[in-house]
Each structure stands twice: as structure tokens, then as C-alpha cells.
Predict the 3D structure of the following.
Amino acid sequence: MSGIRFDGVCVAYDGNTVLDRLDLTVEPGEVMALLGPSGSGKTTALRAVAGFVRPAAGRVLIGGRDVTALPPHKRGIGMVVQQYALFPHMRVEENVAFGLRAQKAPRAGIPGRVAEALEMTGMAAYARRYPRELSGGQQQRVAIARALAIRPGVLLLDEPLSALDAQLRSGMLAELARLHRELPDVTILYVTHDQVEALTLADRIAVMDRARLQDCGTPQELYRAPRTEFTASFVGNANLLPVTVAEGGAVFEGRALTLDRGRAVPGSTATLCVRPHLLGLGAGPNALSGTIAEVQWRGSTHRLYVDVDGHRVKADLPELRETPALGERVTLHFEPRDAVLLAAGVAHA
Amino acid sequence: MPPVAVLAVLFLYPLALVVQQSLSPDSGGGAFDAYARVFGSRAFLDALGTTVWLAVGATLGCLVLGFTLALIIAFVPFPGARAVAKFIDVFLSFPSFLITLALLFLYGTVGMANGLVTEFTGATEGPFRFLTTPWGVLLAEITYFTPFVIRPLLAAFSQLDTAQLEVAAGLGARPARIVRQVILPEALPALGAGGSLVLVMCLNEFGIVLFTGAKDVTTLPMLIYGKAILESDYPAACVVAVVNIAISVGLFGLYRVVSKRAGA
Amino acid sequence: MLVHSRTGRWAAWGLFGLLFLPLFALPLLVVVAASFATHWSGALPSGPTTANYTAAVRGESLQALTTSLLTAVAASLLALTVGTWAALAGAALRKRGKRVLDALFMLPVAVPSVVVGLAVLVAFSRPPVLLNGTGSIVVLAHTVLVTAFAHQSVSAAIVRLDPAYEQAAASLGARPAYVLWRVRLPLLLPSLTAAAGLCFALSMGELSATMMLYPPDWMPLPVRIFTATDRGSLFSGSAVAVVLMATTLLVLLAVSRIRTRASYR
């Protein structure tokens, strides 16, 4: 069982800081998703664990051992990248055996371990094929089998599903969850820009933006109680409204709102985060009225854009019988427990 | 590093010796004696002039011919255009002197062209005598080196978005205008790179001139061969060599700069 | 499609045929035609014969062919080794060092082949290494001349090689030497064979440096063709030239067969 620890890791290319003082601990056996837009530093963090980028400062520890100065091939990690990087000149079984042969594993044991890894990923029938004879999803499975064959303590997955189409992706997602249940000892660091993948698979999510860790917590924590505006808008959808904190609630454009949660100093400015699907149509507590700016039909739901005193508020409602006309005046409301107060401009990293 | 050591022993050391021999020959004589002797000789100046004008002329010829042919192959495709492109690749792998050999049969004193004329007119001698003049060398060089221009051009043309041409044509531009305003600007880097490569190779060409066998066509490489092998005058050969190196390495540096810009 | 009218297209094709056929196709054809002839005094060659070929594959010509083949194979292998080694070493260097190395290895292309011949002659006709009058001096000069091309094409291939393969291999625990041998070199194989073909063709046709160096007992084919035509034996010279072209083509063809088998994508 080996966890991963980032200890003040900084990485810079040509004077640009691409990873800024990352402190993060991944517990042994945990699935940690690094979630963020491109350029947020998430892939750099993963490559620092793999040993392909050298931190300018800080340490990387795997299983409590400082590996910062160790070359990649001595780190004992498994890695799967977006484009799979299967060796095109080797058959599937040779690809999977590669790591075992490279590490001079006892010859007699290799076929068994190759078969085991292929079995686990459902690719046993394809052992004699070449990578070019496989579909994208199959190549993906082989890449995972290849990484698992060396029985790594740590598995690094760098956008492993982004080259697959949507349908295959959800299938592979379930597959990865099953693999993790079968191999509970393997610590997984999963880099993705897709919140659905992160929410589905991860025990915890580390949200990254502009080279920094913004937020870290379980998927439920991040979704229900984000600590920053960035997390609120990147994990799920969010309406972010500027408010002034009041006793037991907040004031938005002259409206007094009641809130269950909120720990800010009365009188200070803050941001209120309300998820669009938690807004209801019609009168109720915490009413926001405005005019319809746009209506989008999305099959099972309707998305309304409502202008409330110059702020555009989105609401996702179950399919409406009668859709409101543009310019019509409507009222939205939300329950006091369904909104979160974010202290404006303060990063909680 | 071992590969650099190999290069140093096999190439850089010999090259340095040539420079050293040109300055202070083993056979005696002070520094620059050989230079004064060579630079003062008529044969050297003639060879220098011939080399330069032949190379420049051949390069221009190759550019015009290569551009025309590449345009047609790329943009007015015909069945077999791919085979022609393949043929050009093969053509590049043959030695240059084959062209001169072929021209001997085409335009030599007894050859196809003169034979045709004498058969029809009954004259005893054909009209084509240019083969042993610089013009014969020029024709051979243009023939042999044009593919070196066509190749980078075809590569550049394949990068060109055909939608651009269609949009231009849709806007009512005539082919000549499209060539001038859309294709030519895109092709300029490739033309520059191919042209400077051909210029260097023409300056250094030896086989074509040797096979022509004309006494009055002497280029710098021919002069080096003559001085060293036929006259055993090594100091003089080394001096000419140094001059030839200076010209072509300078131009090759230019080619590298141009082709870097062209991204080739 | 640039020209849309039918007449315009035919005009362009006509121009192409008018330029291309006489300039590029005809020369190769006449050499082949002449190799089967004894006279060429009219429009077409006359006196059909195969005697030129009987002569071209025996005696001195046969010896020249084996000399050329040995030289080309030896020079290509040496050049490929040195060029690949340098290209791999260059890829590991920083930008500046790589540029110096590239320039150094491209230099033989810029220096006239005749001068390379002269330089090698001057350098190895004196102690400490005396090679003058041996076949190895020819091999050596050819190696210098073709190494640049080997280095260039292998370097270009290394740049195109996706670093993800090496990184995947390293993450699986393979040390650098193992990665080179089992991953990088196999992936470079198509480019290596292409470079080998190029080097072989160049060496087979090399005349300039060879003229400066060749000893009487190591006369490659191009020199043999030159001495034949210089003596006025144009027709037997043509036959030897055709043998040269055919050999080069055969080897290139074989190389491209290996290449297609070695290319994976």
C-alpha cells in the first residue's frame, strides 16, 4: 500500500510557473481525481509523480519514500495516457509483458501474469493481436492491462477516456470503478477535465486552476458545499450572485434571503451559489422575480434564463407544460438549505 | 562523443589539412605563395566565372521549370500524376553523369537530334554542337537538379488548403491570378530552400562536367581534379578547394537559414 | 483543381508532356536503348545486340560492380551507425548543443565532394595512417559523404517520434538502454531502412570524390562507366550504366519492401 504526497511542489518551464506550491496527500488505496481546465497544472502534477518533470522546489513522496530525484523507471508506477502509447511493433501480450521483462521478472512467471492482467481487463481473447488491429476502447484496456501487469502500488491515469466517444466513455468509467473494487490496494491518481468522470470515480477530488490547488474534498462536499467560486462553477453548474451578508441570511439587490448555512461576518460582501436544478418556478421562500431572457428545451428539462435586476439566473426545471414567453415576468425561489455562501474573492486552498 | 570523434578524424582533420596545405605546402614555399599563383592565373578566374554563371543559370532554370511542373502535378492532376511523383524520387537516386551520357545520345555529333536532321535534309553533319559548350552543361544541370526543386514544392503544395483555391476561384479569380496571389506566396519558402540547395549542388557538380569532356568548360571542382590528379600540383588544388569550400559553405549556411524559415 | 475548362486542362497537360518527357523520361530511355545497340548515326540506334551486356557482367565490369556493391554496403552501414548514433546523442542534448552537432554533421553536404576526396587523399597519404592506394580510402570517403544524409533523416525521424512511447516504457520500469533497444530503435526502423537506401544509392553513384581516390584495383562502377565513355565506347558504357541503375533500383525496392513491413501505422 503506497500513498502519494506532494510536498510544496513547484514546476516552472522557461520561467512560467505551471505548478505552484502544491501540497496534497493521496491516501493509500484512494482514488484521487485532479480536476481542472487545460493549463491548470493537473497533468504537470501527474508527470511530477511519474518523474517526467523535475520539480523546481518541493518533494514528491510515494509510499513515504522521497522519489523526487529518482528516474521514472525506478519509481514502480503504472501509467496510462490519453493516446495509450501502446508499442505498435509488439503484440498485445508483448505489450503487457514489456514491464515484466524490462524489470527482469522471473521468466516462468511472466505468461501467467500477462494472462491475469488481460483477463482482468477482458482482453484475453486479443493477446495475439497488434495494437493497430484494435478499436480505441480495446487499446485502452490493453494500456490498462500493461500498467497493471507490473502490479504497481500507484496507478497514474492521464485523461484516459478523453479519446473515446461518449458511449464508450461511460462503459469504461464503470469498468474502471470495477477494477478499483477488485484492486483496492492500488492508489489511483486520475487526471481529467471532465467533472462527470471525477464525480463518478473519485473518492476525493482536487480542483486545480491556474497552477494552483483551489479546493479538495469528497465529490459530495465539493458539489454541495464548494468553498470557492471556481469550484462552484467548475464542479456542476452554478448561479453566482453577489450578496451582502446579513444575520441568518443575505441581501441580494434589496431582497432579504434566508439561508441555513453561512458563516460570514454580517455586512461583508459575499457570493451566493445556487444550483440551477434547485430553483423552483413560482412563489416560495427566497423569491427572485425577473423577466425571461431565453428558454431552452433540453428534452427532460427546460432551462430558463431569467434576468433578475441585471443578473442572469439559470434555472433547470422539469419539462414544463406551458413554456413562458420571452419577456414574461416570472418568479423563481429556492429553499434556505439549498444555497451556499462563498466569501468573495477568498481562495480556500 | 564517439560519433563526433569519427567525424573529426575522417572529415574535419582532412579538411584542416587542406587549408594548411594551401597556406604552407609540404613542397616548400611561403604562406600565400600558392594563393598568389592561383589567383593570378587565367584558368582559375575563368573557372570561377564559369562555375558561378553556370550555377546561377541552372538554378534559375530549375526554379522556373520545377515550379511549372510541380504546379501541374499538384493542381491539374491527371491519371499517373502519382507515378510521375514516384519517378521523380527514383530520378533523384541516380547519379548525375547519367544525364550527360544520355545527352550524348540525344544531341551528340552522332545522336538522335542530329541524326533526325541529317536524315531529313541529307546534310552530312547535324546542326547541334552545343553539347561540349557550357550550354550543354547548363542543360544537363537543369535536367538533373529540377527534381530537387519539385520535391519540396510538392510537399508545400500538399500543405496548401485546397479550399483556399476554391474560394479564390469562387470569387472569380482567374488561374493566373490564383497562382500569383495564393499559390506563389505559399510556395516561396520551398522555392527559396530548393533553389539555394540546387545552387550549392550546381557549384559543386563534377560528374556532369567531367562526362561532357569539353576542354573549354572548366569549373572549380574540375580545376581541383585537374590540378591534383592530372598535374599533381597539390598546393594549387588545395587553394582552389579552399575557395570552393568558402563559396559553397557560405551558400549552404544560407540554405539552412532559409529552409529553417520554410520549416522544411 | 486550378484549371476548370477542358481545353485549359489539356493545354496544361500538353505543356507538362512537352517539358517532362524529353527532359526527364527520354534521357533514361536513350541510355537503355543505346545499351542494346552498336551504332547511333540516324534518328534511332541501330545494330541491335546484347553483346554490351555480356561484356558488362564479366571481367572488369563485373569486378567494378562487386567493388561498388561492397563499397556502398560498407559505407552505408558505417554511415548509418555513425549518423544514428550522432542523431540519438543530439536528441538528448540541449537546443544549443543540438544545433552545433547538426551543423557539424551537415557540413559534408556543403563541402564539394571533390574537395572531400582531395582532403581524404591529402590526409591519409601521410603518416600516421597510410591508406592511399587501398580500397578502404574509397569506402572512407563515401562514408564521410553519406553520413550527413543518414544523420539528417534519422534526426528528422527522432523528432517525429512521439515521446509518449519512451515515457510509457520508462514508467513500466525499463532503463534507458532497454528503452532504446526495445522501443526507440524498432520504432525508428522504417526511417533507418529509408536512410540506408538513400546512402546506398548515393554511394553507388558517387563519382566526384572517387575520381580523386580510387586505386587501380578498386574501381567502382561510375569510374568504369567514365573510362569506357572516355575511350569512346559509349554503347558498352551505357550497358554498364543500365546495370548500375538496375542494381540501385533493385536495392531500393528491397529496402522499401522491408520498410512497409516495418512500418506499423
The domain at 37-262 of chain B is CATH 1.10.3720.10 (MetI-like fold). The radius of gyration of chain B is 22 Å. The mean pLDDT of chain B is 81.
